[in-house]
Design goal:
Elements (H helix, E strand, L loop, with lengths): L3 E7 L9 E6 L7 E10 L2 H7 L17 E2 L3 E9 L11 E5 L16 E5 L3 E3 L6 H6 L1 H11 L24 E5 L4 H12 L3 E6 L4 H6 L4 E4 L5 H4 L3 E6 L13 E9 L8 H7 L2 E3 L7 H12 L7 E6 L3 H10 L5 E5 L2
Parallel strand pairs: 9-10, 9-12, 10-11, 12-13, 13-14, 15-16
Antiparallel strand pairs: 1-2, 1-4, 3-5, 3-7, 3-16, 5-6, 6-8
Helix pairs in contact: 3-4
């Protein structure tokens, strides 16, 4: 008899209302995989894009998955079963992961569920110093900050450029983080500070106290003053926002500095950057259990902390997506599975 579970599934693309909490078949751990009983899962922008069918992409790039599908990549939970050839994890271990990203980005990585199968190579022991909510909020955002600022950690082809992304030394440098109040941004502030940088945080005014508490040396409220007029002689800008006019940050960067774009689509300042001697680079975050284990030590001792914007029960994933769509997040939205 097939074992069942509860999950949030899509039967069609659309708004938050298409997320349905219903019965689904419980997955079975294959060779090299671990079955995780999910305690919490977090929401990331790719979840919203996939739910909507990636309508912003050209039609030939839009997904055509087999419905129903289950969204979500970031999980924290407990090992419930172990597949063949897995020796590094044991039943009952508390673990966290970013699941099969980006390889399953167009069909769903199945984290919005009571159980999910995770390749052992993508899994790490949950830091004991944090709870499942914080751990679930970490993986994609923390790995993004880590792979941009500390270590790329893989040799996969870069989908955004012809050369691999290379982090730059940060000790003694000035780093500006745009979108510092969000999921990636608030962790990038902390990682840059840990690496010895002077950090300028750019966000709306409601985030000022938090970002100073997280280590930012200077705060710029972009609703009152443009960061390109308030900052100068910056060694590195990491833009976690994207959108129009990313080129404006070239004006605050020193010759020989760098502009790292978490979402580079639409950037058109390559020639201007080259003329100024500024490196512009991006990369696609990828699942990596070893990096989560390494970064987890910083979560464990409190050097880095995950800020939770809000929590919702897994049964109310549609309301969580509505919250995400309104923007202005301070940290991460987390779904509580049990």
């Amino acid at each position: 008899m097939t074992e069942m579970m509860r999950a949030v599934r899509l039967h069609e693309f659309g708004g938050p209302e298409v997320l349905l909490y219903e019965d689904a078949r419980r997955p079975v751990a294959a060779r090299g995989e671990v079955l995780v009983r999910v305690h919490a899962a977090s929401i990331n922008p790719p979840d919203l894009y996939l739910r909507d069918g990636y309508r912003a992409l050209p039609s030939e790039w839009q997904p055509h998955p087999a419905f129903p599908l289950i969204l979500g990549t970031d999980v924290s939970g407990i090992v419930a079963a172990i597949g063949d050839s897995v020796s590094e994890f044991h039943l009952g271990d508390e673990v966290y992961a970013m699941v099969r990203f980006p390889q399953d980005v167009m069909k769903g990585s199945s984290a919005y569920a009571e159980y999910v199968c995770v390749p052992a190579s993508e899994l790490a022991l949950k830091p004991v110093g944090i709870d499942h909510l914080q751990a679930a909020g970490a993986p994609m955002s923390l790995l993004t900050a880590w792979q941009f600022l500390v270590e790329l950690g893989h040799d996969a082809a870069n989908p955004f450029q012809s050369f691999p992304h290379v982090p730059v030394p940060l000790e003694g440098k000035t780093v500006l983080v745009n979108g510092a109040g969000g999921g990636v941004g608030h962790l990038a502030v902390q990682v840059a500070k840990w690496k010895g940088a002077r950090v300028i945080a750019v966000a709306s005014g409601k985030h000022e106290a938090l970002l100073h508490d997280l280590g930012a040396d200077q705060f710029i409220d972009y609703t009152k003053i443009s960061p390109e007029t308030a900052a100068q002689d910056v060694d590195l800008v990491i833009d976690a926002v994207g959108g129009s006019n990313m080129e404006r940050f070239l004006n605050v960067i020193k010759p020989g500095g760098a502009l790292f774009l978490v979402n580079p689509v639409g950037f058109s300042g390559q020639d201007d950057a080259a003329a100024r001697g500024i490196t512009v680079s991006s990369t696609q975050v990828r699942s990596n259990g070893a990096q989560l284990a390494e970064a987890g030590r910083l979560l464990d001792d409190g050097t880095i902390r995950v800020v939770i914007d809000s929590t919702f029960p897994l049964t109310d994933a549609s309301a969580a997506h509505e919250r995400a769509s309104r923007g202005g997040l301070q940290g991460k939205i987390v779904l509580i599975a049990g």
